[in-house]
Amino acid sequence: MKDFKSLLSNYKVIFFDSYGVIRNYNGLIPGIRQTFEWLQNESKPYYIITNDASRSPDLLAEKLHANGLDLIKPSQIISSGMLAKEFLDLKVKTGVVAYMGTPDSAHYIEHPGLEIIPIQEVNEKNSDQITALVLLDDEGFEWLDGINKAVNLLRWRSIPAIVANPDGAYPISKQEVGIAIGGISWMIEKITGKKFIRFGKPDSQIFMFAWEMVKAQFPDITKKDILMVGDTLHTDILGGNKFGLDTALVLTGNILPEDAETRIIGSGIAPTYICTSAVIDNQLSIYEG
Amino acid sequence: MKDFKSLLSNYKVIFFDSYGVIRNYNGLIPGIRQTFEWLQNESKPYYIITNDASRSPDLLAEKLHANGLDLIKPSQIISSGMLAKEFLDLKVKTGVVAYMGTPDSAHYIEHPGLEIIPIQEVNEKNSDQITALVLLDDEGFEWLDGINKAVNLLRWRSIPAIVANPDGAYPISKQEVGIAIGGISWMIEKITGKKFIRFGKPDSQIFMFAWEMVKAQFPDITKKDILMVGDTLHTDILGGNKFGLDTALVLTGNILPEDAETRIIGSGIAPTYICTSAVIDNQLSIYEG
Amino acid sequence: MKDFKSLLSNYKVIFFDSYGVIRNYNGLIPGIRQTFEWLQNESKPYYIITNDASRSPDLLAEKLHANGLDLIKPSQIISSGMLAKEFLDLKVKTGVVAYMGTPDSAHYIEHPGLEIIPIQEVNEKNSDQITALVLLDDEGFEWLDGINKAVNLLRWRSIPAIVANPDGAYPISKQEVGIAIGGISWMIEKITGKKFIRFGKPDSQIFMFAWEMVKAQFPDITKKDILMVGDTLHTDILGGNKFGLDTALVLTGNILPEDAETRIIGSGIAPTYICTSAVIDNQLSIYEG
Amino acid sequence: MKDFKSLLSNYKVIFFDSYGVIRNYNGLIPGIRQTFEWLQNESKPYYIITNDASRSPDLLAEKLHANGLDLIKPSQIISSGMLAKEFLDLKVKTGVVAYMGTPDSAHYIEHPGLEIIPIQEVNEKNSDQITALVLLDDEGFEWLDGINKAVNLLRWRSIPAIVANPDGAYPISKQEVGIAIGGISWMIEKITGKKFIRFGKPDSQIFMFAWEMVKAQFPDITKKDILMVGDTLHTDILGGNKFGLDTALVLTGNILPEDAETRIIGSGIAPTYICTSAVIDNQLSIYEG
Fold it and tell me: What is the mean pLDDT of chain A?
């Protein structure tokens, strides 16, 4: 097998990571539109599985549309924020939920019966009413104030603390990374000793969410029929492997082509395939992981 | 609500941990038989969800029967070993699988097309054929030899390493604990730098396995209808909470009654209920977590 | 032995931690002045050994004087910043040193031949000249900007990264803690994978610094003649114990009287003595650790 | 500067690591005898600083002599076991000290007033008398029994736990490593939650021990006059750097020539020099780190 199209042809359903696979800090990965046009023509179902909880699936789709990829529908996007939402629906029925993130990210914690406040509004007086803390995005609050408030809230109150994006950092330019809310959660966890609940790849629950959507539509599908395509070993590939899916690592994001082998051997996380990109006209681009 | 029977009455399906809830190093928890007789009479479905991968569900059921609890059928037992088995079925189709554990535990990795060898038989010559390493039980191998062989195998080969019991230690008498295979996996992981795949509570995948069995039989069930009963905060309660279930901590295992509050506050892992035990005739035994 | 004065009488030299022992967020610990007057009258030498690298010994002494404790001279204060300074003197002879902290804290890295810049002034262009990164204080920079710049600097350049205060957090009021620069260093270390050099208790090097000063003045002293008085198990007591000193835990800072036993048993870090405070007129306040 | 002899000429005192620098699993590093003959002829003082606490300096010297290097005297060997010994002398004056290691390693904990027992003889009855646990060597006990006994001892008793060799693993043949007692201590620490006291490089205390011996003989020496030669980044180089010494990484042990750059960049631990080996006739072997 020599090209990405033949690889996709071997599976009935495709899961894609978004950042580093479909788009990056510069916009769409050049040529990626062809991949989704081909999937559309083939009527091959696909889903975007993303650890981006900074905005709702609607707004995530809008962003892709604005970038020139108007084929992807909100209903095809599964974000880690949706798991946080389900958790609150099931486990936190009343009270005030404090969140770290922008107002856009707060979409995921809006719920009849719950009041929500940004972390900067937490204080010694209202902390008694708070029933959960949800970390959604690294923006939307002043770090010194917000992170210290989160630490103190968890010292005062024994409440669930949820992180909807377990990533530590993400590329913001060719040279630079930005610390993600997952990285901030490591510091809060170590300082307070409190255990966070993490949703998002590599955790199985986000794959299960996608899996149940696929099964509802295609009851005969098995895990062997699904390929997970991602750019990050510790989230996309580890999570896909663990869930029992075949996995394809693409080299348009977190891992540079020259580092792939070292990173795979160093971590012991091996994809089923390694591909230069998720663009379908690539020639000679695939080898077995 | 004052007793364990009323609590069970509020749910349609019950998940139980085994060790520390149903039995311990002394045999059955006194009186626990009544709980299962009542569940049987009420036709209330229940499942045992255990991180014990030391033997097959058949043998785990046999052990409970030998202890005097003959009501529980193998088909009601979901062990973390079953997840390891599913992983191998989906992801490791050929070659030789090395395992740490007793011959009884090797049940989980028997698979047409796979050869299996205990860790003590791994050497520099046959290591080329090995396609996965599975940690099942802390017995069945001499530690110095077996743990060193596992470390070297993972240095030589970039293969999946799976742990089917994430527990660090377990009580073996009133005063003593024994290190579990999960504890051994921490040392191997830190020395080799390789990332292990961990199955078993608190990871969601074992709950999903149970959830799919329940849904197949009772399609209308929701997560709100299920109660998870366990004795360990970091596995039963954290895992149940994360999956979206209500949780009941019982004080017949890992956590002594006098420590419950400190441990819950220290870890931030809060059960929905705290009960002195899972025996149904307890009076005045429940308070909200 | 029943009071703090008799305890001090048993040792020839006393080492004190500052924050939580001599002063806290409210100013001096009430009555502490008597302790230092008595030491002065007895001509018993003492030193303040502090993880506070936010300002020079001169300014640290000034702060104690302003609080009403004018007996302590700058030459009696040994701060973790002095170790960072020694490291730069010995190991970083040229180039530009970037620092996180206030201009006051930058005192420690001023050195003929070295240029110093605050973290906020680091950019892709000047990063080539940077030869070390020193974390001194949690103030003096905007967190989002400064912490992200530190992460990227360590990704671009293989240079020594030094933390002059290993504490994770410190009390800023009766109810609240603030994250210290040591806590921030944990996050940077985990995200970048780079190993930090940590100066300050419990590390031995700060005790060695004090020890060499004591030996220069009193050549016959032995470690058995020195008592370390502190409020924090993981820094003062662990560090003092490891260096071979007798240690006294006081309960006016990080550890509440009701938690002392649990914290000692939980951590396994046992002081030689536990005292309600370092104020010398305390009655019946000491028991063996 | 092009060869190892010129490098040594630039320093007044040399510190050497032993394993991986002077000898390995095959015996002496070929040619290393010349280096010590030259040092002897030049009357340049040198010390061996080793994390090997498996036997006394006398027996460590005997082993080098048996290998053909009879120039090194026991008084020139400083082992991490000597720090453990000093700790017991200062801090543990009575009772029974339990140890993990061979009878040879127990040399370090022999002390008038202390009874010593190997870990395998600890039980519920005698554990009340035990006043410290010391980890010296990975041999001398059956692992399953010994490691479990250590875990339970630390659960029952709040006593100091000391590790005299912080290494996780060491090469035992060209292809294989063996887990060291430091690696075992990580598992015990994680399972029990108790904080260990670690002696040996990279901790400063072993360098201080050597430094005080050097100062006693050569009062005018400064840290700039000393070179630390080692094969391991996380112990020899990090420890030497932190103590303020110039450091030379040699490639005859833990780090293969082809991996040196990646390992240095990945860890951020940079030696002052990188040398192919510590053999003095090497040509063109040195470049600046």
Answer: 94
| Closest chain B residue by Cα to residue D186 | B187
Split into its structural domains, chain A has a count of 2
Domain boundary among C198, C231, C265: C198
- pLDDT tens across A68-112, in order? 999 999 999 999 999 999 999 999 989 999 999 999 999 999 988
Contact of D244 with chain C, judged by CB distance below 8 Å, is answered with yes
Position D207 scores a pLDDT of 97
Q: What is the pLDDT of residue A288?
A: 64
Residues of A in contact with C176 (CB under 8 A): 124, 148, 152
Q: Does B175 touch chain D (CB under 8 A)?
A: yes
Write the CB contacts of A205 (distance below 8 Å, at least 6 apart in sequence). Answer: A83, A199, B204, B208, B242, B243
Question: Distance (Å, rounded) from C-alpha A38 to C-alpha B224?
Answer: 41
Q: Which chains touch C (3 or more CB pairs under 8 A)?
A: A, D
Interface residue of D191, D196, D262 to substitute, partner B, most B CBs within 10 Å: D191
* D85 falls within a domain: yes
From chain D, pick out residues whose CB is under 8 angstroms from the CB of C90.
223-224, 244-245
Q: What's the alpha-carbon Rg for chain B, to the nearest Å?
A: 19
pTM across the whole model: 0.95
Single out the residue in B146, B163, B198 at which a domain terminates.
B198
The stretch C237-266 carries a mean pLDDT of 94
Say yes or no: C169 contacts chain A, CB-CB below 8 A.
yes
Q: Is B195 on the interface with A (CB under 8 A)?
A: yes
Shared domain for C212 and C176, answered yes or no, is no
Q: Smallest Cβ distance to B143: which of D144, D183, D186?
A: D144
CATH code for the domain in which residue D127 is found = 3.40.50.1000
The H or E element that residue D170 is part of is strand D169-171
**Lowest-confidence range among A279-283, B41-45, D137-141?**
A279-283
- CB interface of D with B, residues 122-141, below 8 Å: 124, 138
pLDDT of residue D18: 97
Token digits of residue C145: 């900007």
Whether C285 has a pLDDT exceeding 80, the answer reads no
Confidence check: pLDDT of B287 > 80: no
Binned at pLDDT 50, 70 and 90, residue C281 comes out as confident
Query: What's the CA gap between D112 and B31, in Å, rounded?
Result: 55
Domain presence at residue A68: no
pLDDT in tens, A214-223: 999 999 999 9
State whether C268 and D195 contact (CB < 8 Å).
yes
Range of the domain at A261: 4-51+202-288
The pLDDT, as a whole number, for residue D64 is 96
Residue D69 counted as domain residue: no
What is the structure's pLDDT at C283?
57
- Interchain pair C152, A175: CB under 8 A: yes
B188 and B218 co-located in one domain: no
Residues D129 and D149 in one domain: yes
Whether residue D145 lies inside any domain: the answer is yes
Over range D24-49, report the average pLDDT.
Answer: 96
Q: Do A151 and C190 touch (CB under 8 A)?
A: no
Q: What average pLDDT does chain C have?
A: 94
Q: Are residues A18 and A89 in the same domain?
A: no
With contact defined as beta carbons under 8 Å apart, do C187 and A183 qualify?
A: yes
Same domain for D257 and D242: yes
Q: Are residues B146 and B188 in the same domain?
A: yes
Question: Per-residue pLDDT tens for A138-184?
Answer: 999 999 999 999 999 999 999 999 999 999 999 999 899 999 999 99
* Tokens encoding D249: 């990484």
Residue D163 shares a structural domain with residue D208: no
CB contact under 8 A, B148 and D179: yes
Do A216 and A275 lie in one domain? The reply is: yes
